[in-house]
């Protein structure tokens, strides 16, 4: 596989690893997202000044307001964080 294909497969695998532990395989609950962030992006949580910032991030991921993060919302989050880390996205 190419590097991009590998990255895409890793995104799918990461989502599938954390989604469904609370019941629904097609989405992550707030608890599942927090667990994923703690294990996969620990520096992000360390950079947060308080729990309210983390909660704000989690709420911001839930574009459709169903209190869960589906795969599309997860991919948008990863893309936004990648842009922020790389400094290439406009505001």
From TrEMBL:
Biological processes per GO annotation: endothelial cell migration
Q: Which domain of life is it from?
A: Eukaryota
The residues covered by the EF-hand domain are 49-84
Q: Cross-referenced SMART domains, in alphabetical order?
A: EFh (SM00054), S_100 (SM01394)
Q: Does the keyword Protease apply?
A: no
The alphabetized UniProt keywords are: Calcium, Metal-binding, Repeat
Q: Which GO terms label this protein's molecular function in UniProt?
A: calcium ion binding; calcium-dependent protein binding; transition metal ion binding
- Name used for this protein in its record: EF-hand domain-containing protein
